[in-house]
Amino acid sequence: MADFILDFEKPVVELEKKILSLKVSGEHSKIDFSSEIADLEVKKEKLKKEIYDNLTPWQKVLLARHPNRPYTLDYVKIICENFVELHGDRAYGDDSALVCGLATIDGKPVVVIGHQKGRSIQENMDRNFAMAHPEGYRKALRIMRMAEKFDRPIITFIDTSGAYPGIAAEERGQAEAIARNLRDMSVLEVPVISIVIGEGGSGGALGIGIGNKVAMLENSYYSVISPEGCAAILFRDASKAQEATEALKITAKDLFKSKVIDEIINEPLGGAHMDPVETAMNIKQTISKYLVLYSKMTKQQIVEDRYKKIRAMGIFEETVVKQAQKNKATKEAKNKKK
User: Fold this and answer.
1) pTM of structure
2) How sure is the predictor about 88, in pLDDT bands with cuts at 50, 70 and 90?
3) Terminal Cα-to-Cα distance of the chain (whole angstroms)
4) Contact 144, 208 (CB under 8 A)
5) Residue 57's closest CA among 276, 249, 207, 301?
6) Residue 217, by phi and psi: left (phi above 0), alpha (psi -120 to 50) or beta?
7) Helix or strand or coil: residue 129?
8) Are residues 26 and 119 in the same domain?
9) Spatial CA neighbour of 218 closest among 60, 50, 66
10) 239 and 120 share a domain?
């Protein structure tokens, strides 16, 4: 996966290969190619900026799914201190797709909850590709209640294509577990800060996403359904995922505009995987800012703030359809003649 390259990244990779080739040739032949290398470096940076500043929504989805992208535990190692993972829902079992634990951020105690993908095939199998079962959401809620009891802010990292849709998950109450999380998170008396770090798919994402503040990395997405799922339903063709992505408006810019999220967190040029430390520091800056904000609020103010945030989501407009009125008038006139 270290050599994983997306189609739109290939021109940049070709330039990097040329630069490397000149460096190797210069070392072997003792010829000075520094001027040519410098020109290619400038050209490469210009090309990178041109590509990544103009990504299509579908290209951003592909970046959000990049196998080298940092996951929850990668960020926790950089952002947090003293992380201790907690396991089990005290009812059925533990779910490795959702990690939960206690930690501190610059000495401030917090609770951390997040979806966790795997790097290898075996790890992805163990983590179920970050698609949580009901016990994962029940574990998360158990830890959230603990956070409320001990007055610890909650930080959630969202990165899943959706909750696990298998028969076993449905038998154990998948829908009920997510619904209960939505209900109970909405009235938690501690602040919840949610960060979409990759994929934000369906109820699987929303199950830990009812936050006072919701932020997204700029190359992540947040959607009621995956692009492929939407295309399969609306167009009867999953291959039309790119078209569905355009229609869904699931990028950070679209969601910020509609007030679904509160902030867009910058990524290094090329995506979060190009510099995980820089990305983590950007996330930490956002979290720290909100921790200070909510430290000045009472419990009641925190609940009211979350309520107002949810009520302000989305944009709608009420209009009178003149054509419908005209049709109704015409129909009434015909009925009178009869």
Assistant:
1) 0.88
2) very high
3) 74
4) no
5) 249
6) beta
7) helix
8) no
9) 60
10) yes
CA distance 125 to 166: 14
- Mention every residue, 6+ apart, whose C-beta is less than 8 A from residue 52: 269, 270, 271
3-state DSSP assignment of residue 289: helix
- pLDDT tens digits, one per residue of 246-299: 999 999 999 999 889 999 999 999 999 999 999 999 999 999 999 999 999 999
DSSP state of 251: B
154: tokens are 């909650």
- Number of domains making up the chain: 2
Q: Considering the domain boundaries, does residue 327 fall inside one?
A: no
CA-based nearest residue to 273, from 16, 43, 65: 65
The reply to whether 240 falls in a domain is yes
Its domain, for residue 168, covers 62-311
Where is average pLDDT lowest: 17-31, 73-87, 115-129, 318-332?
Answer: 318-332
Percent of the chain with pLDDT over 70: 96
Task: Quote the radius of gyration of the chain (alpha carbons, Å).
Answer: 24
**Domain for residue 332, yes or no?**
no
Residue 266 gets the label, from left (phi > 0), alpha (psi -120 to 50) or beta, of: beta
Q: Give the Cα-Cα-Cα angle 193, 198, 200 (nearest 5 degrees).
A: 70
29 and 74 share a domain? no
Is a pLDDT exceeding 60 seen at residue 2? no
**Does residue 158 carry a pLDDT above 90?**
yes
φ, ψ for residue 142, nearest 5 deg? -60, -45
Query: Looking at residue 116, which CATH number applies to its domain?
Result: 3.90.226.10
Residues 122 and 256 in one domain: yes
